[in-house]
Amino acid sequence: MTKKNDEWKLTLSPEQYKVLRECGTEPPFTGKYVNHKENGVYVCAGCGNELFSSDTKYESGSGWPSFWDQVTEDAIERREDNSLWMKRTEIVCKKCGGHLGHVFDDGPNPTGLRYCVNSLSLDFKSKDSE
Ligand code: FE
Predict the structure, then answer these.
(1) Which residues of 65-78 are buried (b: 16+ CB within 10 A; e: fewer)?
(2) What distance in Å separates the CA atoms of residue 75 and residue 49, rounded to the nearest whole number?
(3) Residue 116 falls in the annotated catalytic set
(4) 85 CA to middle of ligand 1, Å?
(5) Where does the chain have alpha helices with state H?
(6) Domains in the chain: boundaries
(7) Rounded to an integer, what distance in angstroms lies between the CA atom of residue 53 and that of residue 67?
(8) How far, in Å, CA of 130 to CA of 125, rounded?
(9) Residue 8 DSSP SS3
(10) How far is the centre of ligand 1, averaged over its atoms, from the C-alpha of 49 (Å)?
(11) 27 CA to middle of ligand 1, Å?
(12) Which is the catalytic residue, given 44, 93, 96, 116?
């Protein structure tokens, strides 16, 4: 899926655009899904691609929604990120390339991974409403 920058600007809020298309980061503890506990699926706010199940969401204390796994093996793409003098692994939506956050290896079992995601990059589909 390839959209031009001005097309994204039409469909995303300015805050979402900044995170998804310009690799921005929302301030910690401000996102609407940090303490969100409903059952369902978190999808990409840019394209609707299913990314994370609520079953893998956990309390990391970081201030961002955190998951220990992605919903399917090919939902997310990893990219090396050496910005801000750190060596990190960026995670992007595999379908639209939208920036989601980063993945770290200090998560809980069974994967040991922590997918640290901006709320602004996500929409939520409730299981109960379907
Ligand atoms: Fe996407």
Answers:
(1) bbbbbbbeeebbee
(2) 7
(3) yes
(4) 27
(5) 5-11, 14-22
(6) 5-129
(7) 8
(8) 9
(9) helix
(10) 5
(11) 21
(12) 116
Topology of the domain covering 5-129: 2.170.150
Q: Residue 130 corresponds to which tokens in the numbers above? A: 């379907």
Tokens of 34: 């940090």
Per-residue pLDDT of the chain (130 residues), as tens digits, is 678 888 999 999 999 999 999 999 999 999 999 999 999 999 999 999 999 999 999 999 999 999 999 999 999 999 999 999 999 999 999 999 999 999 999 999 999 999 999 999 999 999 875 5
Among 28, 36, 73, 29, smallest CA distance to 54 is for 36
Name the strand (E) or helix (H) holding 100. Answer: strand 99-104
One-letter amino acid for residue 69 of the chain = D
**Torsion over CA: 119, 17, 11, 68 (sign):** negative
